[in-house]
Amino acid sequence: VCLLFVCFKIMFGGLFRSALVRSVARSTTGPSSSRRFLSCETQRKFDVVVIGGGAGGIAVSASLLSRDPTLKVAIVEPKHKHKYQPGYTLVGAGIFKREQASRPMVQCIPKGACWLEGKVKSILADDNAVELESGSKYEYDYLVVSPGLQLNFDAVEGLVDTLGKNGVTCNYDIGLATYTWDLVKNMKSGKAVFTQPIMPIKCAGAPQKAMYLSADYWREEGVLDNIDVTFCNNNPGLFGNPAYVPALKDACNSYDVDLKFFHNLVKVDGENKKATFDVYEDGKVVKQVTLDFDMMHVVPPMGPLDFMKGQPVSDAAGWVDVNAFTLQNPKYPNVFGLGDACNTANAKTAAAVRKQAPIVAENLLDVRDGKEALCAYDGYGSCPLTVTRKSVVLAEFGYDGKLLPSFPKYLIDGTKPSRLAWILKADFMPFVYFDVMLKGNEFLAKPTHMLKKIE
Known about the structure:
It is a single chain. By secondary structure, the protein is α/β, with parallel strands linked by helices. Helix content is about 30%, strand content about 25%. The chain is built from eleven helices and 21 strands. The protein has helices spanning about 1-10, 15-30, 55-65, 90, 160, 175-185, 205-220, 245-255, 350-370, 420-435, 450-455, and strands at about 45-50, 75, 80-85, 100-105, 115, 120-125, 130, 135-145, 150, 170, 190-195, 225-235, 260, 265-270, 275-280, 285-290, 295, 300-305, 335, 380-385, 395. A hairpin with a 4-residue loop joins strand 6 and strand 7. It is globular and about 65 Å long. The chain starts with a helix and ends with a helix.
């Protein structure tokens, strides 16, 4: 299917992307009151309550309902727009328009589910209930926790006050991603600094993807030689999986990037355009350095949402506590988790959610039917590293760094830049996300591993 799509893309160029833009435009201008889901206004008890209307919450709800359409499923989510976060980097590069990276939440809620518009205050796991900030309580037989994580911009002194101005930006916010593109296309000379905090973060490749796409644009415009590009990474290397590092080093060398590892951003002086970093050796701060910048793309530290800290289903840090394979909570067998909020060791990406959602759906229904949860997640995650504006290093791996490629090497060698992988990233994956994953279609994602086989 993917090969046929690639052939279609090669023959018809940008027509598919144009059609996608028109589809998104129709979805954002259509009547917001057109509801395809059930009313929750009078219900207080559900078979399944899902916390979070992001990729994880929507995908698992769709997978559950595709298996049992009679389920009463409620999704708790305060936001009225569903964000396609894998598209943010392309917005920041001027390749996607902002509207391509979101759709109205009302159009993403699966048919047969209902939407509880609000924020969760407490998970009353001993009572099989959740309490919203509004004071409303909803009971459940089963709970799925997928609220995502939070960006801790306030962990860096001065950052909140200068975001979106003074040349300081961040692609992890869709509004700021448009500012990134303004900075990139108008920069002709000077110093560009890109940062990455210590793990865990969502989409660990995004900090350097912003750098590659910017540098490649500057090279196309003939101004790269006038711009000093620096990557300050508070980690020991470019990427956690060594199989992909050679290709990424080649990309950095081609853009003459100054790589600085174990550099942790601690302060931003936007008005004077100075960034201060703690420099680590052997786990200790040995000095501070201050860099000048004309443009700086900052990725802040990330962590669990505040309301998740201290919840009975969370670990000590506030992450959703789950078995790494079954995604089932060890204390409450009727509670499952998936997505960025979990304490699993996989890469926190939408691709991981695509594999996790069917696992959770399968195991939850097995537990409901009196069986043991044995369907196992292998840690799959994918990070399409956009090393140029036309090629991608398609990193796909699971637990313990095991390579888990989706395609034969003769079609896409994930350890090397690939034009076909770019086409998948820019043209095919938005369709897979909105019209496959969020609709409960488990193309290339059906559960195949049993726990005993993995262990």
